[in-house]
Every structure is written in C-alpha cells, then in structure tokens.
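As a warm-up, study this chain.
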Amino acid sequence: TLVVEVASPGTSAIDTTDKLDEYQAHEDIRVIVFVDPDVVSVKVYRRDEQGLWHVEKYADLGQIVDLPEIGASLAMGDVYDTLNPASRPRLQLVEEP
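Now compare it with the structure written out below.
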C-alpha cells in the first residue's frame, strides 16, 4: 500500500510527525510520500523487508521520484508545475565578531 500526503497550510508539523507515526504503525503500508506544496520538498519513506523505514529526500525540480511499488515515477517538475513553491531555505553559518 502507498500513501501520498500533501501538506496543508498550518498542518505540516502534524503531517510529518503524528501522521507519519500513524502510517508507519500500519503493517500493510509500504511507502509513504509527503509533499510540501510551499517549498520544493518531497520525502519518500519506504519499509524494507525487515520492517525498517528508510527516507529519500527530493528538493530539486529536475529530480525523478521512482515508485516501483506501483510501476510509476513522478517528475518533481510535474508535481510542482501549477504551484509556486519557494526554494528550501539553507542554514547559514554566522561567525561572531
């Protein structure tokens, strides 16, 4: 089973914490895809044969998200085609004077 969750304004923290825990608790769910419509960010969580979860992160419009579990792939550019996402902010090191 594959789940796709698109974050809504104001629920991103809940979507990526509480809902992730709930989805991962269901043994029949093998893949969870989280899409953030506000910034270019897709996270794919996959359950391996031992039941462990692994995460793949996509943050570039040129990337392809492969979903062999359903015989499909998603072009990040297509996912965000009609949206106006911001670039993911980067942390900056600030040196003290």
